[in-house]
């Protein structure tokens, strides 16, 4: 296969048969041993998103057709992420009211190295979803572990740039802030 597969982002906050199948599929995802220090799986992050009305969880699906069964969901579910409309801290961006935060984003191990990460967090795919959940947003923001060079390269290839801001979340955990304008963004 040349290039990444055809992808779509499916909101997991909807009550549909496909959403139920995809929620089960993402809850079965595990990170590779070397990646466990860089992120958390949906087992930890999906309940937090469900409990917060400002967060919209989504699955990355590598199939243009809706999944119809558990096997299809496990096969096509290529990753997961959460869009958070409540970017409260000015430590991330100067204008949080017009930003949407991409958090808990990852690509499942079977799909890594196939262009899924870059394609799913690039315009127009992620931008359409971000504009749907945060109509006034004009900027996407994310934090990447300073030691996670691979993820930083993927985000850079998707149009994100380092802002120069660094967050110290734990003594040995430094997060670098990256942003990019929303291609379909609103703002005022």
TrEMBL record:
Entries under CDD domains matching the protein: NAT_SF (cd04301)
Domain N-acetyltransferase: 5-183
Domain of life: Bacteria
PROSITE patterns linked: GNAT (PS51186)
Protein name, entry field: GNAT family N-acetyltransferase
């Amino acid at each position: 296969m040349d290039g990444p597969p055809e992808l779509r982002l499916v909101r997991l906050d909807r009550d549909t048969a496909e959403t139920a199948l995809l929620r089960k599929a993402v809850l079965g995802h595990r990170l590779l041993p070397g990646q466990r220090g860089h992120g958390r799986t949906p087992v930890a992050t999906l309940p937090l998103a469900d409990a917060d009305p400002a967060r919209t969880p989504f699955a990355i699906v590598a199939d243009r057709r809706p999944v119809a069964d558990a096997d299809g969901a496990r096969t096509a579910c290529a990753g997961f992420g959460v869009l958070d409309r409540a970017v409260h801290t000015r430590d991330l961006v100067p204008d949080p009211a017009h930003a949407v935060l991409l958090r808990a984003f990852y690509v499942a191990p079977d799909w890594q190295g196939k262009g899924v990460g870059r394609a799913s967090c690039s315009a127009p795919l992620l931008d359409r979803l971000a504009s749907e959940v945060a109509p006034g947003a004009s900027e996407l923001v994310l934090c990447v572990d300073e030691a996670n060079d691979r993820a930083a390269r993927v985000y850079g290839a998707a149009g994100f740039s380092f802002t120069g801001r660094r967050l110290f979340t734990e003594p040995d955990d430094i997060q670098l802030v990256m942003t990019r304008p929303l291609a379909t963004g609103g703002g005022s």
